[in-house]
Write a structure and sequence with these properties.
Blueprint lengths: L1 H32 L2 H22 L3 H6 L10 H19 L1 H22 L11 H18 L1
Helix pairs in contact: 1-2, 1-4, 1-5, 2-4, 4-5, 5-6
Length: 148
């Protein structure tokens, strides 16, 4: 279990660094092709291709066919991802990378407090408490310090 915690911690730190890098890269792509929406589309198309190849290579291709049987509300994640990519690449030139990333983290933590509290979508339930609210408030403070 300790190894899994370490691996998950490192993986998420690396993924966080990639998210911070993704927004300015996509913003530069948007400037290069003259369209932020076009850049988000290209980003998603490449991500789709990578995931499709990975899904097939690991032998899970048939799982894609089962998606049509999933409850429709579970398919909204792709739309959320599209909005996230567009919002990030559009906001970076205006707010800067630090403020954009801080706001992303603040939004994620606020939603995570509620998702954990209610055990939404089958995640383990973790009640809202002072420590969790304070950690979110500290990120909000970081947003303010990063911008103003």
């Amino acid at each position: 279990m300790a190894n899994q915690i370490l691996i998950a911690t490192v993986l998420m730190a690396v993924a966080g660094a990639m998210i911070a890098s993704q927004a300015p890269i996509n913003a530069a792509l948007g400037r290069s092709i003259g369209s932020p929406v076009g850049a988000a589309t290209v980003s998603f198309a490449i991500g789709f291709a990578v995931l499709l190849i990975a899904t097939i290579l690991i032998g899970d291709g048939s799982s894609l066919l089962r998606a049509v049987k999933a409850p429709p509300f579970l398919l909204v994640g792709g739309a959320m991802g599209a909005l996230f990519v567009f919002a990030a690449l559009w906001s970076v030139p205006i707010l800067g990378v630090v403020t954009t990333a801080s706001l992303m983290i603040f939004g994620q933590m606020g939603a995570a407090l509620l998702l954990d509290h209610y055990g939404a979508f089958g995640v383990a339930q973790h009640s809202i408490n002072v420590t969790r609210v304070l950690s979110t408030a500290l990120v909000a403070g970081g947003v303010i310090l990063s911008r103003w």
